[in-house]
Amino acid sequence: MALTKSARLEAIDVLRGLVMVIMALDHTRDFFSNASRTIAYAFEKYSG
Fold this sequence. Notes:
single chain, 48 residues, mainly alpha, 88% helix
């Protein structure tokens, strides 16, 4: 089964888009998990 050039490029675009969404979710998870640890550390350090 041979794919046409436009179908192949469309498949690559879909794959790239999926990878970008996964990377965005991963970076968001990292940002919020690091932020919560930093806030907890600040409360421990300056609470007394």
